[in-house]
Amino acid sequence: MSSALQYPFTEPPASGHRIQVAPGVHWLHFPLPFSLDHINLWLLEDGDDWTLVDTGFGSRATRELWRAAFDSALDGRPIRRILVTHYHPDHIGQAAWLAGHFQAPVWMTEGEWALTHRLQTASDEAVAEGFRHLFGRHGLGGDALDTLAGRGNSYRKVMPELPPAPEIIAEGDAVSINGDTWRVHIGRGHAPEHACLYRERDRLLISGDQVLPTISSNLTVRAHEPDDDPVTDFVDSLRALRAALPRDTLVLPAHGLPFRGLHERIDDLCAHHDEQLDAARDACAERPLTAFDLLPVLFKRELDSRQLMFAMGESIAHLNCLHALGRVRREERDGRLYHIAV
Questions:
Q1: Is 94 strand, coil or helix?
Q2: What SS3 class is residue 216?
Q3: Which of the 8 DSSP states describes residue 55?
Q4: pTM, full prediction
Q5: Residue 182's domain spans which residues?
Q6: Helix/strand/coil for 96
Q7: Whole-angstrom Cα distance, residue 226 to residue 224?
Q8: Where is the Metallo-beta-lactamase domain (predicted)?
């Protein structure tokens, strides 16, 4: 944990229970079946009901925890509205089921809904072909590429059902919850149109994955947008958030503990990606590199197949950023894309 950050809560709530972190704002903590082993969800008092921010992973185990939480964490009160920060299945995975159970509308941004719909409805064959084309062109091959392509549409496996068409929210919108105004701030890079929510009266930010206290969210390039530059999008939107919100904002992240020190954390995140860009450019100055060649420079640990997928997307993202900045040029050789420092 950064010494520049302050953590007013030292422990998360037990699964299925809640902790109040601010007037009308309660913290839920659900497990995830990954190395990133939890997600924070936020219950906002809304009259005699609740507004829920994010829903948990699309698994049977999460659904069973929710069933127990209906009486414990929710006190038997219904959820009247479900607000989803972005498309990742640990955030939207239970949205369809909860929306059906409570007859509650889902609210999210247009960009996140469009990507959710695109990913969930893609065929296994289209997803496999996308992996082969994007990652193969960037240097991944052999069994590793076959394994990733062979997974088919893994998104649909944990998102078997789309939620109902949502109410659309956008940058600057004011969402009224229990008489309070929560202002929508959009983050980009980790997701196309990630919704963060800010309550001005007590300087409270529900940041989702856009600002996390101890890690940087994955910035990936997707097969249908191979020249996308999520690194620039991420850094630019972080700097806009820093300019808009005060330093002493209490940040409620999707992973990790709530913290204060928003400006310092954003500065650290921006510096981290500057360092990654410099390291990638320096490596490309020694010899032409594919995104696959660059993995040991950007990632100092062994990668399993799931981590390899995210790492390849992030390696491509940093090379796309360097190319957009004119710091590397591209050269195609035998169907693979190499990057050379300029």
A1: coil
A2: coil
A3: -
A4: 0.97
A5: 19-274
A6: helix
A7: 6
A8: 38-255
Q: What angle do CA 106, 112, 115 make, to 5 degrees?
A: 120
**Residues contacting residue 1 through CB under 8 Å, at least 6 positions apart:** 7, 213, 214, 257
Residue 88 included in any domain: yes
- Burial classification of residue 273, based on how many CB atoms lie within 10 Å of its CB (0-12 exposed, 13-18 middle, 19 or more buried): buried
* Total domain count, the chain: 1
Flag whether 111 is in a domain: yes
**Within a domain: 303:** no
Query: CA 264 to CA 250: how far, in whole Å?
Result: 13
Question: Which residue shows structure tokens 């693979």?
Answer: 336
Burial class of residue 56 in the structure, from the number of CB atoms within 10 Å of its CB (0-12 exposed, 13-18 middle, 19+ buried): buried
CATH number for 250: 3.60.15.10
For residue 247, what are the contacts with CB-CB under 8 A and spacing of at least 6? Answer: 261, 262, 263, 264
Look at residue 330 in the predicted model and tell me its pLDDT. Answer: 98
Structure tokens at 8: 């007013």
Instruction: State the burial class of residue 135 (Cβ atoms within 10 Å of its Cβ: 0-12, 13-18, 19+).
Output: buried
Q: Give start and end residues of each alpha helix (H) in the chain.
A: 60-69, 89-92, 95-102, 110-121, 124-137, 142-150, 154-158, 230-244, 262-286, 291-298, 305-324
pLDDT greater than 80 at residue 2: no
Instruction: List, for residues 206-262, the tens digit of each pLDDT value.
Output: 999 999 999 999 999 999 999 999 999 999 999 999 999 999 999 999 999 999 999
Q: Would 140 be classed as within a structural domain?
A: yes
Note the pLDDT tens digit of each residue in 118-140: 999 999 999 999 999 999 999 99
SS3 category, 67: helix
Q: Which backbone phi and psi does 193 adopt, to 5 degrees?
A: -150, 65
